[in-house]
Amino acid sequence: MATTLTPPSFWILTALAGQRRHGYEILQETAQSSDGRVTLKVTTLYAALERLEREGLIEADGDEIVNGRARRYFRLTDDGSAALAAEIAALEEQTKVARARLSAAGHVFASRAAVWA
Fold it and tell me: What is the rounded CA–CA span in Å between residue 78 and residue 25?
C-alpha cells in the first residue's frame, strides 16, 4: 500500500484534524507536530491549501480581520479525515514491513518517538 499524500499535505491535514485553523496556525502546528522537521513556506502552504480545497479534503470555515490582517480558517472535511486515516494506515504498513526486514537482517530497531516528514 503506497502513500498518496505529499508530506506537506499530510502535515496540513494532521494540523486540521484537531481543529479549524488559519494559515499561520497551520504553519506553527506543522513545525511543532513534526518536531521541526517540516517547516512549510507560506507559498507552499497556500498552494497546498488551494489544492486540498479543490480535492474536497478541506474547506474554508470563515474569515476574520485581526489587527488589520485577514485570516481565513480551514477545516478538515469527512473526505479529508478519510484520506488522512488511509495515509496513516499506509505509513503503519510500511513501518511494519521495514521493521520486519531490519529484524530479519539482524538489525536492532531502536524504538523512539518517530515523526514522518
Answer: 21
Per the structure block, which three cell numbers stand in for 65?
A: 480581520
| Residue pair 55/80 in contact by the 8 Å Cβ criterion | no
Residues in the chain where the model's pLDDT stays below 70: 1-3, 109-117
Cβ pair 87, 4 in contact under 8 A: yes
For residue 19, what pLDDT is reported?
A: 95
Q: Tell me if 1 sits within 8 A of 111, measured CB to CB.
A: no
**CA angle at residue 87 from 114 to 9, to 5 degrees?**
85
CA 4 to chain centre: 12
